[in-house]
C-alpha cells in the first residue's frame, strides 16, 4: 500500500525500460571491503535498493568483475590503488566519492569515503541516482557536506506528546525502551542518513529533568545504539535546574562549585552509557525555562559550565538564543541580539549558539535574524522549523525550501557585500571549524511520519540543504518528487510547480507584505489579528500589526523601535527606507498609511486585499494542478493530498476573510473594484 511509510526511500522496479536496461547492464554484483556495523548497514541498504530497483538478483563477490560495485574506505588497499587521493582529500571526513573506473579490464563503480559513514552516504547517494533515473555509465562524483552538525531537534515529551507536533505521538516509546526496539528507530536512522543528518536531540527544549536520570539514560543509550551505525549522534535537551530537580542540590547556580561538580559527574555518567554522546541542547531563561539568569548569572556562565563538564568527553553545548521576556518592554525583535551580542567571544570553544532563522518566531516570512554576522567569534547554528507551527500544521501543503533559501541567501553585509547568512553558518566567513544547522522535526507516529505527504519534503529538503546549501529549492524538489512519486516528466513538473509556489501562496493568504504573528492565540492555528487578551503583550497579535486609522505595520526604523540598527549599515539600507524596502518585508519595518502608493500603483489597502485574494485563489490553482495528476500517481496518496488541499482552500479563504474584514475596520475603505466583500 502507498501509505508513505517508506518516505523517499522507495525501491520499486524502475518503470522506464531504457533506464532499467542501462542499470542492469552496468550493475551485477557488490563487494564490500569490510563488515563493520556501518558498512553492514550500507550493504543492506544497497542490496535492498538495487534488487528492488533493478528487479534482479545482485550477488556479493570477492572478485572484481564487470559491473561490480566496490564499497569501502580510502584506507582499503584496493580502493586506495584505483582512486586518486585527490578525490579523497576533497571528500573530507564525511563526504564520498563515486567513480566509474576500469581496473584489470573490468568496469566497476567505486563508492567510498575516508570514513565508513562517508561510504554509507555514498551508497545512499548512488541509490538516489538510480531513483531519479540519472545516467550512471561514467560517474565521477565527489561530495562533502558544507556543514558539520546536521541536526534534528525533536520537541518530544516524555509522555509522548510533542510540543507543536502535528503527526501523531512521539516515535520514542520510552515505556518499552530499552528492551523493545521499534522497527521505526532503524527506519528513522536510515531516512536521516540518506540525507546526511548526523545529530538528533531527542527531547523537547522545554525539558524534563527526568531525561538525565539513569532510568532514561539507559533508554537513550538503546536508541543511540540503533543510530550509531548510521553516523547519528544523540543529544539531549538539558534542563538547567536539573541539579535541584533530580540532584537534590539547593541551587543550580552555575558558579556554585557543587553545581559544577554535579554536571561534571552527570556528564561522566552519561558517557558511560553513551560513549558517542553528542552533548546538550539548552533553552534557558526564555518562556519560563530556568537558566543562569535565575541566579543573576549570564548566558556565558551557564553555557560554559556545561561545556566544561562535557569537554573531557568531546561533547558540545548548543545554547539557544531564542530569548525574550515580557518584563523587557523593548521590541521583542531586538531582545536576543541585545542579550547575546555582548557575549561574543566569551563562550568556550565547545559552545555553539543556536539562532532561529528570524527575529520573532518561525513566521511564514521573516527577515534574517540580526545576530547572523554579529557574533564573529562564536559559531552560530541555524535553527529552522520543519513542523509547521505557523504554516498550517500538517494540513497545509507548504514546501519550505524557498523559505530556508531566502534566509541562507540573505546578505548580512557584516564583512562587506556577499557575507551571506549561509557563509556565517558554514564557517567560511568567520573561520569556524565547528558548524551546524538544525531544524525542529515534523516527525511523529503517523504512518507517513509527517502527517502530510508533502511535509516529508521539508524533512528531506532540510537534510539536503544542511549538506549543501548551494542546492536550489527546485533541484531538491525535483529529486524528492522523483524518489517519492514519479519520474514522469510532466508530472514531476506539475508537482514541482505546486511546491515551489506554495510558500509564497501561504504568505499571501496568511501574512502578506510583512505582516507577522497574527495567528490564533496559543495554538497558533488560523487567523486572530484582533486578539488582544494575552497576559503577555508580546503574545498579542495587535502588538505586531499595530493597525490603526492611519495605517498598519511595525515601525522599526529610528522613529520607532530602531531594531534596524542591529543590522549592518548596508543590510539595514535594504529595509529602512519606506520607498525602497522590498514590499515583502514592508510591514515588518514600517507603519504605512492605508493610502500609501505601492510599486504596483495600488494603495496599500488595495494591495493588501489583492494579496489576500491572490493567495486564496492560488490554492484553487494548486488544487487544479493536483487534480490533473490523477492516474500519474497512486490513488491513495493522490486522494489524501486532494482532501488536504480542500481543507487548505477553505482555510485560505478563512484567513483572507478574517484578515480583510478585521483590517477594514481600521482602513474603513471598500474592497478594490471587482472584489467580492466577504460576508
Ligand atoms: O515557537 C515557540 C513555540 C513554543 C516553543 C518555543 C521555542 C519549545 O510556540 O512551543 O517551545 O517557540 O522555540 O522554544
From TrEMBL:
Keyword Membrane listed: no
GO BP annotations, alphabetical order: glucuronoxylan catabolic process
Taxonomic superkingdom: Bacteria
InterPro entries for this protein: A-glucoronidase_C_sf, GH, Glyco_hydro_67_aGlcAse, Glyco_hydro_67_aGlcAse_N, Glyco_hydro_67_C, Glyco_hydro_67_cat, Hex-like_dom2
Catalyses which reaction(s): Hydrolysis of (1->2)-alpha-D-(4-O-methyl)glucuronosyl links in the main chain of hardwood xylans
Domain Glycosyl hydrolase family 67 catalytic: 130-449
PANTHER family referenced in this protein's UniProt entry, alphabetically: ALPHA-GLUCURONIDASE A (PTHR39207)
Subunit structure: Homodimer.
Record-given protein name: Xylan alpha-1,2-glucuronidase
Species in which this protein is naturally found: Panacibacter ginsenosidivorans
Amino acid at each position: 500500500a502507498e501509505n508513505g511509510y517508506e518516505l523517499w526511500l522507495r525501491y520499486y522496479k524502475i518503470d522506464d525500460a531504457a533506464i532499467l536496461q542501462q542499470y542492469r547492464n552496468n550493475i551485477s554484483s557488490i563487494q564490500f571491503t569490510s563488515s563493520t556495523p556501518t558498512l553492514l548497514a550500507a550493504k543492506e541498504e544497497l542490496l535492498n535498493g538495487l534488487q528492488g530497483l533493478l528487479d534482479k538478483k545482485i550477488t556479493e563477490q570477492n572478485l572484481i568483475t564487470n559491473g561490480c560495485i566496490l564499497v569501502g574506505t580510502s584506507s582499503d588497499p584496493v580502493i586506495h590503488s584505483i582512486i586518486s587521493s585527490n578525490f579523497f582529500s576533497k571528500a573530507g571526513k564525511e563526504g564520498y566519492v563515486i567513480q566509474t573506473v576500469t581496473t584489470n579490464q573490468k568496469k566497476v563503480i567505486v563508492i567510498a569515503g575516508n570514513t565508513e559513514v562517508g561510504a554509507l552516504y555514498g551508497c545512499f547517494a548512488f541509490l538516489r541516482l538510480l531513483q531519479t533515473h540519472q545516467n550512471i555509465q561514467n560517474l565521477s562524483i565527489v561530495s562533502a557536506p558544507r556543514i558539520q552538525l546536521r541536526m534534528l531537534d525533536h520537541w518530544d515529551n516524555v509522555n509522548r506528546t510533542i510540543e507543536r507536533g502535528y503527526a501523531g505521538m512521539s516515535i520514542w516509546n520510552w515505556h518499552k525502551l530499552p528492551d523493545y526496539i521499534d522497527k521505526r528507530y532503524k527506519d528513522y536512522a536510515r531516512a536521516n542518513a540518506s540525507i546526511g543528518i548526523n545529530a538528533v536531540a531527542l527531547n523537547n527544549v522545554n525539558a524534563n529533568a527526568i531525561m538525565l536520570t539513569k532510568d532514561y539514560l539507559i533508554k537513550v543509550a538503546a536508541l543511540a545504539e540503533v543510530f550509531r551505525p548510521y553516523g547519528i549522534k544523540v543529544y539531549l535537551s538539558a534542563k538547567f535546574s536539573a541539579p535541584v530537580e533530580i540532584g537534590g542540590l539547593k541551587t543550580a547556580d552555575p558558579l556554585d562549585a557543587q553545581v559544577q561538580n554535579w554536571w561534571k559527574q552527570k556528564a561522566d555518567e552519561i558517557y558511560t552509557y553513551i560513549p558517542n554522546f553528542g552533548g546538550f541542547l539548552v533553552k534557558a531563561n526564555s518562556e519560563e525555562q530556568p537558566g543562569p539568569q535565575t541566579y543573576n548569572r549570564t548566558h556565558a556562565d551557564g553555557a560554559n559550565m556545561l561545556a566544561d563538564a562535557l569537554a573531557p568527553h568531546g561533547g558540545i553545548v548548543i545554547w539557544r538564543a531564542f530569548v525574550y521576556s515580557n518584563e523587557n518592554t523593548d521590541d521583542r525583535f531586538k531582545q536576543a541580539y541585545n542579550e547575546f551580542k555582548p557575549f561574543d567571544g566569551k563562550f568556550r570553544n565547545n559552545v555553539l549558539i543556536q539562532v532561529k532563522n528570524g527575529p520573532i518566531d518561525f513566521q511564514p516570512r521573516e527577515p534574517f535574524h540580526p545576530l547572523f554576522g554579529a557574533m564573529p567569534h562564536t559559531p552560530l547554528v541555524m535553527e529552522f522549523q520543519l513542523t509547521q507551527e505557523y504554516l498550517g500544521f500538517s494540513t497545509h501543503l507548504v514546501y519550505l525550501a524557498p523559505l530556508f533559501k531566502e534566509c541562507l541567501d540573505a546578505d548580512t553585509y557584516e564583512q562587506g557585500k556577499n557575507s551571506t547568512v549561509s557563509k556565517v553558518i558554514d564557517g567560511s566567513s568567520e573561520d569556524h571549524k565547528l558548524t551546524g544547522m538544525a531544524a525542529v522535526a515534523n516527525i511523529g507516529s503517523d504512518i507517513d511520519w509527517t502527517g502530510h505527504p508533502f511535509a516529508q519534503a521539508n524533512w528531506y529538503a532540510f537534510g539536503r540543504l544542511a549538506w549543501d546549501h548551494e542546492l536550489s529549492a527546485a533541484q531538491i524538489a525535483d529529486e524528492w518528487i522523483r524518489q517519492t512519486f514519479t519520474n514522469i516528466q510532466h508530472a514531476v513538473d506539475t508537482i514541482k510547480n505546486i511546491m515551489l509556489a506554495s510558500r509564497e501562496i501561504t504568505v499571501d493568504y496568511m501574512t502578506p507584505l510583512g505582516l507577522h504573528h497574527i495567528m490564533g492565540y496559543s495554538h497558533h492555528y488560523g487567523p486572530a489579528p484582533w486578539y488582544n487578551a494575552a497576559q503577555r503583550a508580546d503574545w498579542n497579535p495587535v502588538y505586531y500589526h499595530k493597525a490603526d486609522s492611519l495605517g498598519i505595520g511595525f515601525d522599526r526604523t529610528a522613529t520607532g523601535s530602531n531594531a534596524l540598527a542591529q543590522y549592518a549599515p548596508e543590510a539595514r539600507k535594504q529595509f529602512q527606507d519606506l520607498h525602497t524596502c522590498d514590499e515583502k518585508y514592508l510591514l515588518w519595518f514600517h507603519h504605512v498609511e492605508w493610502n500609501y502608493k505601492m510599486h504596483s500603483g495600488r494603495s496599500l489597502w488595495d494591495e493588501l486585499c489583492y494579496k489576500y485574494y491572490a493567495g486564496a485563489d492560488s490554492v484553487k490553482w494548486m488544487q487544479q494542478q493536483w487534480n490533473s495528476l490523477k492516474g500519474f500517481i497512486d490513488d491513495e496518496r493522490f486522494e489524501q493530498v486532494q482532501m488536504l488541499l480542500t481543507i487548505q482552500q477553505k482555510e485560505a479563504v478563512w484567513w483572507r476573510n478574517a484578515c480583510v474584514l478585521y483590517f477594514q475596520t481600521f482602513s474603513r475603505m471598500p474592497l478594490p473594484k471587482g472584489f467580492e466583500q466577504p460576508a
